[in-house]
Amino acid sequence: VIGSNHGHAGTITAAQLTAGGVLSLNIQGTATHPHTVELTAADLTAVAANSRVSKESSSDNGHSHSVTFN
């Protein structure tokens, strides 16, 4: 779920969940500007275990978004 959304989308693939390490996820989707969400290895482990993880996106175009996985 992306708060105050206007076309952004973020999907973590199964391969990204199992790869380990950190993930810088681009959530631009159909919006006219990008944002990224930084996920740690611990965040990815929690998402893989169906736990809810909320992160703040990068601040681009004068704003950011709260992004919740699961």
Task: Jot down its keywords.
70 residues, alpha+beta, two-stranded antiparallel sheet, two-stranded antiparallel ribbon, 23% strand, elongated
Structural account:
It is built from two helices and four strands, in the order αββαββ. It is α+β, with helices and mostly antiparallel strands and 70 residues long. The strands form two sheets. It has a two-stranded antiparallel sheet. The protein has a two-stranded antiparallel ribbon with strand order 3-4. The chain is elongated and about 30 Å long. The N and C termini lie close together (8 Å).
Average of per-residue pLDDT values:
95
Q: What's the alpha carbon Rg, rounded to whole Å? A: 12 Å
Gap from first CA to last CA:
8 Å
Beta strand count:
4
Sum this structure up briefly.
By secondary structure, the protein is α+β, with helices and mostly antiparallel strands. Helices cover about 20% and strands about 25% of the residues. The termini are close together.
Helix-strand layout with pairing:
Blueprint: H1 14-19, E1 23-26, E2 36-39, H2 41-48, E3 53-56, E4 66-69
Antiparallel strand pairs: 1-2, 3-4
